[in-house]
Fold:
Amino acid sequence: GLTPEYMLPPLDRVEEIDVEERDLRNAAEELNDDTEPDLIFIGCPHASLEELIVIMQGLQGRIVKKEMWVCVSRFLKELAKQLGIYQKLEGLGVKIVSDTCPIVAPIISLGVKSIATNSAKGVWYSRNINKVKAKIARLPDLIEDAVK
Structure:
């Protein structure tokens, strides 16, 4: 390895746990406030090129009716521009922002009271840092929510 002091712990010291489908359902329920989001955001951590393509294909030319932000790295934003993805998504009303995320953006001053995201990390930070209601959903469901 590259980090000289790094070494894996002995496997006999690693706790093994079983995660079942109901555990995942319970975790998802804990992450969902009963709320209609003002803002849908993707990219906590930053969205990938594949996610941008899924969003573009999922929208199928439909304009978003809710505020939708996709957070990406500066590099990916430039790549998306070169590929024409950025322009298509912006034309459909999607805001693509780079090198930030809604957790550190001034969403409260923009009037946002609730968010929806595909990120458990995003839900946790939105609730605990920004003090807004939050819910988690799969990317295809967020896309559909954005256009209704």
Notes: The longest helix spans residues 49-59. The helical segments are 21-30, 49-59, 74-83, 85-91, 120-130, 139-147. The CA atoms of residues 18 and 141 lie 28 Å apart.
